[in-house]
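My current task is to audit a protein record that another person submitted. I need someone to confirm that the token line plausibly describes how this chain folds. Take the sequence as given and treat only the tokens as open to question. This is what I was given:
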Amino acid sequence: MGGGEQPLKAAVDVRGAVHARRLCREPTLAFNPHSERCQLGADSYARRMRNLIQALGLGLIVACASNEGQPSGAVAAAPGEANRGEAPLLDLRLDGDEGAALVWLPDGEHLRLLHVEGIETGLGANDVGLDRGQMGGARLVRFRSVGGKVLLEQVNTAYRASSGGRLEQDAARQSFASSVLWGGTPVDRARDGRVLVDLTSFLVRDAHGIQSTLASRGQGSFKLDPDRSALDVGRCRAFPDNVEFAAVLTFTSAKPGPLARSSAPDGGALTFVQRQGLLRLPDGGYEPRRFDPRMGAFSIRYLDYGVPLDVPITQRLAVRHRLTRDPESGEVVPIVYYVDAAAPEPVRSALVEGASWWAEAFAQAGYPGAFRVEVAPDGLDPLDLRHNVIQWVHRSTRGWSYGNAISDPRTGELIKGHVS
């Protein structure tokens, strides 16, 4: 989705109506297109599938630039693949000796990015809900220098004046609080004004809300143990359009609940691998679409103080794909979902078949070949923000399949589709 690619004028919102009817023909499968969930019948285990959503991967750039001010032991992050000549966005340095991740940032007002978090490993207890591959929503964040510190601030996108002038937009922004997620003192300053910051404390924290989830599910009062938690430097990777961080987090409790005790070797010490990613914001070529409840789709909601008085202040935008054309061939660039190769047969084939029904819906909407489903190749990372994934999850008891749409909180554009 580079600047040279033009979005299709009629952006696609292929919804669940056609497929809801087809899915309901399966006597052991109940499908609710509005909740995006499939309730599996006991005798249809081999068809544990067909619960598809929407998504489109994108991302941001990470790079390795100068060695100026580089701490001892720090090395530039090895890129996940060639940068295709794109200009670097983040100059990331990884220190394996200290277990640290540092980044060079320009001074003053820094980049605005999308931040996404999730857990690579789960608890395995359906009633708790901390599943393998579970992801949170995307947040709009910005780095900025204030009073000798660098702050990572989450911008409040729930209240805005999108159709108003600058003063109206400023009034809406200043009327509601933002949230500073992290702050740190620069480790070094370059002669050109750049600042070097250590992001390790931001990355080795409970970003996913594991502690609160365990408490709310009656599994005890857990706390993050810093002595048993660390940044996994070897798992931090730089790609052309996104940077991925991994950390090992251990939570401890003197009185763990029954599901914690039954799911882990030591119920008082629960260890997870948490992932966090940063992405560049999508370009301005996407055209948001107002949400209609008949779509049976996800949506984002916000209050818009810039609308006319006769227009509802509560606004909702549909969460949907952006289709683009290849600038050279003019062909539609297909949306690809990858089915987890860990899914056993015949479930894996059923997942591919059920998900592929969306291709017919795209074709009926006028975009043949715009949707494709494949078994994930070896080495594909399910939590990589560039890929749409249908991930296989094991639990100690039967549970539900569910979809998650990682979307741009400003527009509703899908960043990544992730089905568990």
Observations:
- The two ends are 26 Å apart (CA to CA).
- Residues 347-364 form the longest helix (18 residues).
- The chain has a mean pLDDT of 80.
- The longest strand covers residues 269-280.
